[in-house]
Amino acid sequence: MDSWGVGVLTLFFCLALAALLRKPRRALPPGPPAIPIIGNLMWLTRSAADFESVLGDLWSKYGPVVTIHLGSHPTVMVGDRDLAHKMLVQHGAVFADRSNQFSVNTAGYGPLWRLLRRNLTTEMFNPSRIRQCADAREWVLQCADAREWVLCVLLDKLRLTAASGDGVVIVKETFQFAMFCLLVFLCFGEKLEERQREIFLPLIRSRRQRKESKVPGKNSFRFCYLDSLLDLEIRRKREEAQR
C-alpha cells in the first residue's frame, strides 16, 4: 500500500475516534459492534437481503430489543409484541415525535401528522373512494390488448431477465414492479411505464393542471390520492398567511 492509501486510512480512523470521544454515549439497547459511518461490522459479511434472519439471530443473542446501525444512524428493533404494544400504545406519546419529515408515516406527531392522517382516512380509506379505485385495480390486471396485466408484466420481464441473466430469474423483482405500477397509478392517476420512473414532479404538475381544468386525460384516473393533497394546508400556516 502506498503512502497515499496509508494517509487516507489514518485520517479515517482518526475521524472515527474523534467522533466516538466527542459525542456522549447514549443509553441504547445492546447490539452488535459498530463503527462510525460504516455502521455494524456484521454488514460486511451479511447481506441486507437477509435482514429478517439477521434480526432473528440478534434477538436470540441480545434479547427482544436490539440496536443496529445502518450507516451512522442507530435503529432500535423490537422483537416482542408485548414490548411493542407497551412502547407504541401505552407510551405512544413518548415515541411519537420523529425527525423533520413530511409524510404520513414519518412526520412528527403534531398538526401536520394529524392533517395528513385525517386526509388519508377520509380521501383514500373510506368505502366510496375505494370503489372509485376499482378502475385502477382493473387496469393493473389488463393490458391494451386485453391480456391480463400480470401476465404481460411477468412474461415480458421474465423473458428479458432470463435472456440477460443466463436463465437465472428473480421473480420477486417482477412482482415488486407490478405493485409499483399500481401504487403510482393510485397516487398520481397516471399509467407509469418502466422507462418513466423519474418523472414524478411532471406528473404532479400535470395532475394539478388537469384538476384545475376538470378535463380527464386519456390514460388518467378520475381520482387519485395526489388530488387530495394539492390544496391541503395546515390551519395554523393558512391563518398566518392571511394576516
TrEMBL record:
GO terms for cellular component: membrane. It is found in: Membrane. GO terms for molecular function: heme binding; iron ion binding; oxidoreductase activity, acting on paired donors, with incorporation or reduction of molecular oxygen, NAD(P)H as one donor, and incorporation of one atom of oxygen. InterPro entries: Cyt_P450, Cyt_P450_E_grp-I, Cyt_P450_sf, Plant_metabolite_P450s. Pfam families: p450 (PF00067). Keywords: Membrane, Metal-binding, Signal, Transmembrane, Transmembrane helix. Residues 1-18 form the signal peptide. Gene3D superfamilies: Cytochrome P450 (1.10.630.10). It is a single-pass membrane protein. This is Uncharacterized protein.
